[in-house]
Amino acid sequence: KEPFNNLYSMGSILGIGGYGWVLEGHRKSDGLPPQEKGRLPLEVALLKLVGRAPAHPGVIELLEWFEQPEAILLVLERPHPCSDLFDFAHSQGGLLKEHTARNLMHQLVVALEHCHRRGVLHRDVKPENILVKTDTKSLKLIDFGCGDLIQDSVYTEFAGTPQYAPPEWVLQQQYHALPATAWSLGVLLFDLVCGHLPFRKDKDIIRGVLNFNKGVSKDNYYVLINVLTNGIKMPWNQDLLFGVSIDFYT
């Protein structure tokens, strides 16, 4: 396999995450603009699982990867023009119109279902890990650095963003895959339609008090109450937690 530096030229830093960095890059042979990231080897396996044919348009594509002494380099597709969902929401005034949020959530749920069918749990669903093509409003799920193989038994190690952690992790230091994913979807939806996170600290997650903005629709209110309130009482009820999101957005 030809060395990475012979195949790609690197440019400016596009972003820095918890497990690596994103650099602008171009393939020397044809000038195509992929991305490269320093990552853990597990992410390569997860991306290969979700990317094998037939791939899903809502999940970032791994083009190549290179092992170097100091890092694993991933060459990923780079949609253009695009923005992460955090910046996209801020460009819309800090929160999204409900029809836009509903469209994006539908795409995200379908992409996550694809990952789960391939045996992959993302574990860090948040605006910074979702790319939005600004011309078509289509999205791609990125950054599987916190991901793991999906399992029926409990997880006893948390990977992800603390504000998106489910209450069963805060209280018992364990969680199941689908309820935790549904919880993070609820936190994300709340952020998109209210313009702020529902919980900032562990004690807020346990209390489960939701301060809605005026104008949130009854449909979104129903989804959020079921996912972010009932989840505290019944953390293992996958049909309730994940099913509510799936039924509403698909």
From TrEMBL:
Record: active site: D124 (proton acceptor)
Reactions accelerated catalytically: L-threonyl-[protein] + ATP = O-phospho-L-threonyl-[protein] + ADP + H(+); L-seryl-[protein] + ATP = O-phospho-L-seryl-[protein] + ADP + H(+)
GO cellular component, one term: cytoplasm
List of residues binding ATP: L14, G15, I16, G17, G18, Y19, G20, W21, V22, E77, D84
UniProt keyword Phosphoprotein, yes or no: yes
UniProt entry keywords in alphabetical sequence: ATP-binding, Kinase, Nucleotide-binding, Phosphoprotein, Serine/threonine-protein kinase, Transferase
Pfam families: Pkinase
Gene Ontology biological process terms in this record: negative regulation of apoptotic process; regulation of mitotic cell cycle
Principal EC category: transferase
Protein kinase domain boundaries: 8-250
Family: Belongs to the protein kinase superfamily. CAMK Ser/Thr protein kinase family. PIM subfamily.
PANTHER family: AURORA KINASE-RELATED, SERINE/THREONINE-PROTEIN KINASE PIM
Name of the protein: non-specific serine/threonine protein kinase
